[in-house]
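To: structure subgroup
Subject: Chain for Friday's discussion

All,

I'm putting the inputs and outputs inline so they're searchable in the archive.
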Amino acid sequence: MQEFRMERLTGRKYREGKFDKAILAVGSAENHGDHLPFGTDTIVSYELALKVAERVPGLLVLPPVTYGMSEHYAHFPLTISLRSETLVAVLKDILRSLLKHGIEKIFILNGHDGNIAPIEIAAREVKVENPRAKIAVLEAWWITAGKLLPPDTFEVWNGLGHGGEGETSIMLALHPELVELEHAKGRVPEGLPEEVQIKWLFHELTPYGASGDPTKATPEKGKKMVEVLVEHIVDFIREMDARDWKYELSE
């Protein structure tokens, strides 16, 4: 199988690889309760990116961004956060670098809620600067998985939660050796409205560093999540490739 991880490619192998698009995983370094590793968001998004690249020729997997905007989780040690403006600047520099070297088709796979706004700002501004850029973003895989899977897949809160049923399940599927399920505790927040966002600090929602119910997690649920997410992204990229990443009204 062709090597597609940028950090493992030589200049020669990169040229011979004929990479015409790239995927960037964006994660975080933050507390995920007593049962999941600090790098969960990075691990999941990067592993999904690798699985997508196995099925999509010409897709370069960039080294992941391992820090995110996590200040709203900072009550729980050891959370390390970038400021929003710092993450925006980092992402813009990465995108501009890719464009400078002729990679104009870029997929961003986000693994952390605090990164959504910085990714939006960076992608929009770079797109305005470089109209030829084709930038696609999967903002929240944890929400997408819940929409793609049958409604009875999860037992609590549709699998949602920071370190909750879904996130713990997908880690059990990808890296079970990193999960300490016997230490899992979580809490489903009550009273949060569905259509209006309350800008909370995480310790206002749970005392455990995790929300949702990680005790309901299983590797089987996680495998289903991986399968539908990878299939979803692969289908999207293949469809875009089929029309050279042109979309309605684009030149």
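Points worth raising on Friday:
The chain has a mean pLDDT of 97.
The first strand starts at residue 21 and ends at 26.

D.
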